[in-house]
Amino acid sequence: MSFGAEAVAAYELKMENAYEYKGDIRWALTAEGKTRKGKVPARDQIAPELLTFSDCIIEGRDPEPDGWEGLADVRIIRALYESARTGQPVKLAPFEKPQRPTKEQEEHRPPAKEPDYVNVQPPS
User: CA-CA to 96 of 20 to 30 Å: which in 4, 65, 112, 116?
Assistant: First the structure.
């Protein structure tokens, strides 16, 4: 299959436990009427991000991904809203970013343990 070979360029991705601090992340990807399933083993998704950001502050370097990553997302979201409002496509100017996140930046930490709650109910 090659880019643009299908009549409809659509897929559906479902993720279970995508934003939880514990447990496996399960996913299902449906494309061309076929569904593939898998899981990502449990790991701490937040600690590496916080530690890297902290190191950037201490060492005086820019984090990656940085605010440009967020700006690119906001541009797309605003264009989607405008398109929905007008019923017309919204063309975005090219957005070049000099540096992109790399696989080498990936950091693994063991899964977080559920905290002990003191006189409160768990959030979910």
Answer: 4
**How many of the other CB atoms lie within 10 Å of CB of 18?**
12
Q: In what order do the strands lie in the sheet with 34-40?
A: 11-16, 25-31, 34-40
Residue 1 is predicted with a pLDDT of 46
Q: What DSSP designation does 14 have? A: E
- Check: CB of residue 63 under 8 Å from CB of residue 55: no
Q: At 27, give phi and psi (nearest 5°).
A: -135, 155
Q: Kindly state the average pLDDT of the residues 43-68.
A: 86
Strand segments, DSSP code E, in the chain are 11-16, 25-31, 34-40
> Which residues pair with residue 14 across a beta bridge?
28
Residue 34 has what DSSP assignment? E
Are 68 and 97 in contact, with CB atoms under 8 Å apart?
yes
Yes or no: say if 61 and 54 are a contact pair by the CB < 8 Å rule: no
